[in-house]
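hey m, so remember when u said the tokens were messed up on ur end? i reran from scratch. heres the input so u can diff it against urs
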Amino acid sequence: MKQLIIAGVTAAMLLAAAGCGRVLVSADHANYLSVSRSKVVFVQWRKTSRGDLHGTITEGSIGGSGSAQVLSVSSAPFTGTISRNSVRLTFAELYFLHAHALGSLSGGGSWLTMVVPQSDGALRQVMFTQSDKARYDRAIAGLRGRIRHAVLLAAKQQASQRQQHAHAQAEQRAQSALNALYRDSSIALGGRLAGDLARLAGNIRAARSHLATERNDASGNNKYCSAALTVGGDAQAVGGAVENARGTVLSLAPDISAVRRDIVTATAYLRHLSKSGLPAPSLASSVIANADVSLKQAIMMANSHIDQINAIDAQARSLADHMATRACSGARSGNTPRPIAPIRPLPVRCRPGSGTRCHNRDPRTRGRAAATPQGSPLTATGLPLGAPLEPSPSSPSVL
């Protein structure tokens, strides 16, 4: 019966205290935890026999961004007091530039509301709930997991950005290679081949002009072999134009090789785009095909010019030799140079496994067609891309 009376009195005292707004914290220690997406704050204290508080505030926060995020944990000891529902903490050292933190208890000590110093020196009101060390450890583990997720996400984004950059570079290089190929192979737009053909045409015009002069001089007075000597000089002028044409033809060979290297480069970049799942630039196949056609056209036009200038040279030599006879035989223009060799057409070779029957008439390369790697890219003429165009030293042809 006495026990029931004592319990009833105690309950009445607790209700009265609650009605007056007092918070009774009878335990000698307390733990409070606050958790957000990027920060965990853990406050723990114990009471001394005099009623003072001794404890620590521990903060774990995520710093940095992306793949550079890290978890930093800091702790600071404090002393403090509780007066009714008010809490005052005094830090042993400045805690983020502040020496004190003020708060209040509510819910019978279940909640702690405190103005907590932040890392930037500002103050922010934080709500804590009663907790324990195990929950704090789980909250810290949650922050670490959030960092791992952010790092993986940042790594994926960086990899995606690098891939996008690589794709953009590949597309740009392919377009640049196609632009260079179009520019160099064009016969009508001042490319490499067009320049060579224009110079060769200029050599023909010069040779024709000298031949016209020679014919006019041949009708002059040949007293003392003067006409024969003049015609011989004109024939030599024609020969000079022919030698210039010979040099132009020789310069055409490396320019053809340069265009074919452009074809190889452009084809390689297009293949890279295809393997990367990227679309080829518009008209890419047409540019490459037209460049290969331009090579054949350039060779055909150059050989036509070569035939013309060889014929002009033959006429000039014949006329000079006709004038340099008998008493005027000393007026001969000198040794007769060999004609300019025509440019050899690009040969057609077999693609291994294609089923096409090909005949290789060059004894130096007979039997080598089968050695071409399976699937190596060919031009429209059948030559493997990158195959050398330079003539053999023993070959009378330019190419």
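this time it looks ok to me. Residues 35 and 41 are 7 Å apart (CA to CA). if urs says something different then somethings off w ur setup not the seq
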